[in-house]
């Protein structure tokens, strides 16, 4: 059993030795101890915020994670930049790092250090999955919520398990939807999903076909459109309600997405009576249209809808209790703040972040991208009722 911890001098010597190893091999190397100490760049980091900041700033493409035991107890992990590094070099690095650490730590007092083979991608994915499971059931004041170990200390850039990746991106998306009225950063959401920021960014592009910032902004703009159309809150109030600290920046994002300023949007859409918002989910299939996704959403939420056909074109003319009224009022749809010119069944949903169905006056509805008056948004289908 370990009777006492390494001395501060030991940690300083280890940090210096790892920095020398990095310089000689050109393999960036760090050590994170499970007592909350990070050795990186010839420094010893003890402060939690400094550790998190250092790890967030790293831009490794891939990590090799070597578990480290001290006197047969798991002590920490060595993380090496494995980008363009062969397995043979990693094997030699493991042996060399073990020799370095044993040369510094007093084995007679603390025990022998052993650097283990690097974790496989499957092992890391299972650790990530286990962490996620614990996260679902942890109590607000439990040790799991107050642990100082950064959740992104292990980067999962080599994760090949599609199910594990899906679970991770689902955690991120759910967190975004639950906290969309707050300011959200990539680092924050990555920590909640137990991933590195760089890896989460790649997952967004792979699974949602949009980068993280665009996805979040699309959700925020959709929420802002609802509030602008259906409430009397000021633009500044709405900006604050959806997590923007500066109204000017909110206005810039809103106009870039919709083609209108928030005030212009409110003025031109004062006849809107109802909006259904459908955020992007992982189960959207690549071959599904906006109409397909909308039908699934209505059915899942027990919302009645009706589609009719005119001259071979089928369009949605009733959702819930609201339907076409003498051809003047009815449903139009938008995707990511824009109203497409195509019918809903001709618009692919695969690369979209949010769909909205809007009940308004046709004469008032606008296609923001063209600033031209819109016609009813048709949803072509082989059947006339759903």
Walk me through the structure.
The protein folds into 3 domains: 8-119, no CATH class; 122-208, no CATH class; 214-373, Arc Repressor Mutant, subunit A. It has helices spanning 8-25, 48-57, 87-104, 107-110, 121-137, 143-146, 162-178, 186-192, 197-208, 212-230, 235-241, 247-258, 262-268, 290-300, and strands at 29-33, 37-40, 43-45, 63-70, 73-81, 113-115, 274-279, 305-310, 313-319, 322-323, 329-335, 354-361, 366-367, 372-373. The N and C termini lie far apart (69 Å). The chain has a 6-stranded antiparallel sheet with strand order 3-2-1-5-4-6, with helices on both faces. The protein has a 3-stranded antiparallel sheet with strand order 7-12-11, sandwiched between helices. The chain is an alpha+beta fold and 386 residues long. The model is unreliable at 138-161 and 366-386 (pLDDT under 50).
Count of helix runs: 14
Instruction: Look at the helices and sheets and give the structural class.
Output: alpha+beta
Number of domains: 3
Overall pLDDT metric: 80
CATH architecture of the largest domain: Orthogonal Bundle
Organism: Levilactobacillus spicheri
Domain HTH araC/xylS-type: 170-268
Protein name: HTH araC/xylS-type domain-containing protein
Region (Disordered): 366-386
